[in-house]
């Protein structure tokens, strides 16, 4: 079943060539209980490593079940070790963070056997070897003899064809050592058993074949060599599908075993993520708040229509647009500034046509009085009322009292130093003490005034409309049609203003995030160093996993997953910290800035400094995991390339 043909293994040490194996020819068949004897350094362990594929010969060939292994890849050797070989080591080589049951089930899990079946078969093996009461204990809580029996159960759980034991009794007393060998032989009657030992007495009592090796050469072999015979079973190297959950468990245990260090690393890495989140929150908060407050001045659903040449729109154009089926309402919009005289004082007020939506006043503030019913009646803003009464500030509770003072008050619009029109106050829009001094009139009355004051039309007049369409494509098509047929352009002033604000904020966000990314570069280096340290601490564990059949990409994936978990911890820390900081700063801002301003001005300022959004949080969590996995890829690759023989010797 196992055949070595002129196998030589050499090591180069400077100018010296060392022959660990020198032209070895051996054949092993089921039923062989072969003990390899020899002094330390004679080549016994090297022979075992070559037979298992943990090491490769410098010359010669190895055949398994008649299959030449010359072209075996590392993956082929890993599958062979996992399916066909059961290892028993002198130092037990159990995974410390797994229970006895999980250690025994490990080779089955590597084969892709489901967890429930693997644990059940492992339980049977442990019960058979007398450890039924210790299956849930970790290796550190087991005696040396118990650990060795766990290692033997692990070797037998896959029902391998070959049992390889490297000094299995070296760490045990003679009585316990005999029991271990007896169990091996008793349960491996139809298998190949190869035991490396320096105990000649043990070999004489239990072996049916003793092979003596010295300086890499076979000195004696007390079983007569027989010609190779065809093997009954063919070697099958069907690759199993190892479950991701197993690799994740190793990554999670690796992380948990150094939790404090990993938490500190995650906390440091999270600083960059916290910066990005807070910057996103503050940009979003400022942008949203500006848009919300702009909406109080410029209705989001209001569209302005201007003549292409920026001249006044004539009545014919007005009538044509009003008759379009897409138009709900259409009114003139005029905004001009004139001097006025009230209560003996001269001041400048902005004159605007009344909102086409008469509910706009109530929506954007508190409305007192009534809407104008005659051409000489007006609605004024809170700031206009304050200026007429020569006042600076007023609290919100006194808005009604202020209106009582100004209602029915008359004032004159002045032109060329002379009164032109006398107007009467019938309503007040309490829109905050910091608002502009505005006077609202019916658009036809205001149109008559501005036309009289400027007969040549040197004033800005546009149409304001609401539409019964909402689709962006439909609105765009309607806008183009108006341009083609009526020579006018339609604009959504709210969208233009907020778009400019968002553009400025987006540019600022990109710049700030660019700066924050510098910290992430440093964080990536830190993650890589932590994973590299983790690899160095687990070199022996990597060797054990390789000996049990783990393939290179399995080892690599374990440490990449560990990196990802580090990144996830960083993202979670950043998320919690950012939400807490944002909440704290918002409360601070509301208490010390927004609330006092509203109290002093009587305004309705509504400003959110930081707006917590789920999208950037989700992005940071995903990016944190991916970024950490990329950062850990190099040390993970290094771990997958470690020499298993050297790794198993690592103390």
What would a concise description of this structure say?
The chain has 651 residues and is of the alpha/beta class.
What's the helix and strand layout?
Blueprint: E1 2-13, E2 16-28, E3 33-37, H1 44-52, E4 59-64, E5 67-68, H2 74-84, E6 85-89, H3 100-111, H4 115-128, H5 144-156, E7 162-166, H6 174-186, E8 192-196, H7 200-206, E9 209-214, E10 217-221, H8 244-257, H9 259-297, E11 303-307, H10 315-322, E12 327-342, E13 345-353, H11 360-364, E14 366-369, E15 377-381, H12 382-388, H13 399-406, E16 410-415, E17 418-430, E18 438-441, H14 443-453, E19 461-467, H15 472-486, E20 488-491, H16 493-537, H17 539-547, H18 552-601, H19 614-631, H20 633-640, H21 644-648
Parallel strand pairs: 3-8, 3-9, 6-7, 7-8, 13-18, 15-17
Antiparallel strand pairs: 1-2, 1-4, 4-5, 9-10, 11-19, 11-20, 12-13, 12-16, 12-19, 14-17, 15-18, 16-17
Could you tell me the mean pLDDT? Answer: 85
Largest sheet report: 6 strands, mixed
- Would you state the CATH class of the largest domain? Alpha Beta
Beta strand count = 20
Q: Report the uncertain regions.
A: 224-229
What is the radius of gyration? Answer: 43 Å
**What is the CATH topology assignment of the largest domain?**
Rossmann fold
User: How far do the termini sit from each other?
Assistant: 34 Å
Beta percentage is 15-25%
Q: How is the largest sheet built, in terms of strand order? A: 6-7-8-3-9-10
- Helicity level: 40-55%
The CATH superfamily of the largest domain appears as P-loop containing nucleotide triphosphate hydrolases
Number of helices: 21
Count of domain modules: 3
Instruction: Give the overall silhouette.
Output: rod-shaped
CATH-defined architecture of the largest domain: 3-Layer(aba) Sandwich
Structural class: alpha/beta
């Amino acid at each position: 079943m196992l055949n070595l043909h002129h196998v030589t293994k050499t090591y180069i040490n400077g100018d010296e060539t060392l022959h660990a194996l020198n032209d070895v020819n051996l054949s092993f068949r089921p039923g062989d209980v072969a003990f390899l004897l020899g002094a330390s350094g004679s080549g016994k362990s090297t022979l075992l490593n070559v037979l298992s594929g943990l090491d490769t010969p410098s010359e010669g060939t190895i055949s398994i079940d008649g299959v030449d292994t010359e072209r075996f890849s590392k993956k082929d050797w890993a599958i062979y070790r996992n399916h066909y070989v059961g290892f028993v080591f002198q130092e037990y080589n159990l995974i410390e963070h797994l229970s006895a049951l999980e250690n025994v089930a490990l080779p089955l899990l590597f084969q892709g056997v489901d967890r429930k079946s693997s644990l059940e078969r492992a339980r049977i093996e442990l019960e058979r070897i007398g450890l039924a009461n210790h299956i849930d204990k970790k290796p550190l809580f087991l005696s040396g003899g118990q650990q060795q029996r766990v290692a033997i159960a692990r070797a037998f759980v896959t029902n391998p064809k070959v049992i390889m034991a490297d000094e299995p009794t070296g760490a045990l007393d003679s009585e316990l050592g005999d029991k271990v060998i007896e169990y091996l032989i008793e349960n491996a009657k139809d298998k190949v058993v190869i035991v490396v030992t320096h105990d000649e007495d043990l070999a004489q009592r239990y072996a049916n074949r003793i092979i003596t090796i010295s300086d890499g050469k076979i000195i004696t072999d007390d079983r007569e060599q027989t010609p190779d015979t065809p093997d009954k079973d063919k070697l099958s190297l069907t690759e199993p599908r190892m479950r991701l959950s197993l690799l994740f468990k190793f990554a999670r245990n690796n992380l948990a075993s150094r939790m404090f260090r990993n938490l500190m690393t995650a906390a440091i890495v999270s600083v960059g993520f916290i910066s990005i989140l807070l910057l996103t929150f503050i940009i979003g908060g400022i942008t949203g708040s500006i848009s919300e407050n702009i909406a109080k001045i410029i209705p989001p659903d209001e569209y302005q229509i201007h003549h292409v040449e920026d001249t006044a729109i004539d009545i014919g154009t007005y009538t044509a647009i009003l008759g379009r089926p897409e138009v709900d309402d259409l009114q003139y919009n005029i905004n001009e500034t004139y001097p006025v005289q009230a209560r003996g004082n001269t001041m400048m007020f902005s004159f605007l046509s009344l909102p086409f939506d008469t509910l706009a006043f109530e929506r954007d503030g508190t409305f007192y009085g009534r809407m104008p019913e005659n051409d000489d009646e007006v609605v004024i803003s809170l700031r206009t009322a304050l200026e007429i009464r020569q006042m600076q500030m007023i609290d919100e509770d006194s808005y009604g009292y202020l209106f009582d003072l100004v209602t029915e008050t008359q004032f004159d619009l002045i032109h060329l130093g002379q009164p032109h029109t006398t107007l009467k106050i019938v309503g007040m829009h309490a829109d905050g003490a910091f608002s502009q001094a505005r006077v609202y009139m019916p658009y036809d009355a205001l149109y008559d005034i501005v036309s009289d004051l400027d007969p040549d039309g040197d004033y800005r007049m546009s149409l304001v409309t609401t539409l019964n369409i909402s689709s962006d494509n439909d609105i765009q098509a309607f806008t183009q049609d108006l341009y083609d047929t009526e020579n006018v352009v339609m604009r959504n002033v709210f969208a233009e203003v907020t778009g400019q604000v968002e553009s400025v904020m987006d540019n600022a966000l990109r710049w700030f995030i660019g700066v924050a990314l510098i910290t992430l570069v440093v964080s990536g280096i830190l993650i890589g160093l932590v994973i590299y340290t983790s690899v160095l601490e687990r070199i022996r564990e990597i060797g054990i996993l390789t000996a049990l059949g783990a393939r290179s990409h399995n080892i690599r994936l374990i440490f990449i997953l560990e990196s990802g978990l580090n990144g996830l911890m960083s993202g979670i820390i950043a998320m919690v910290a950012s939400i807490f900081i944002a909440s704290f700063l918002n409360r601070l801002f509301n208490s010390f800035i927004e609330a006092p301003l509203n109290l002093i001005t009587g305004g309705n300022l509504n400003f959110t400094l930081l707006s917590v959004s789920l999208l950037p949080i989700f992005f940071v969590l995903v990016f944190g995991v991916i970024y950490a996995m990329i950062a850990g890829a190099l040390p993970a690759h290094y771990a997958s390339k470690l020499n298993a023989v050297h790794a198993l010797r690592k103390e």
